[in-house]
Design goal:
Length: 165
Amino acid sequence: MRWRDVKYWPRSFKTGVKNLITWFPIIWKDRQWDHYFLLTILSKKLKLMEDYFEKGHIILDTKKVAHTMRQARICAERLKENEYEDPFYEKLNKKWGPPELNWKEADEEGYCELDITHEHVNTKEDEEQYRKEMRRIREQTNALRKQDKEYFCLMFKKYLDTWWE
């Protein structure tokens, strides 16, 4: 430790305590088992950095840097929340009726079967059309999710080296 570093201790200590307070709720809820928690941490970090750069400090392009971070953060939050299907299912449920979950006892002891029905699915043709629409929804939502993953990775690849002061 050099003697000149001592003058930064109060500021460094204050920043460290502030970081502990800021990150405590995120780390407390963190778990290791899926990508939701990783994306939560990345979103929080990008938001903190975005806010910092939005204030405009040393570099000239702080607003541009904050904007690229915002884009990456929004994309990460969409991936984390994983609500790609919601608008499609709302439309589907308007057409066919909301799903009704019916649990029946299965042939094997201790097991149940789930039968999902819809008010307006009455014939084999309706069932076929409904299944076709469900497949299309899965394809569309998978494409949207894939597009966000690729864009998120592209943002990191393209801008990571510019996210500094």
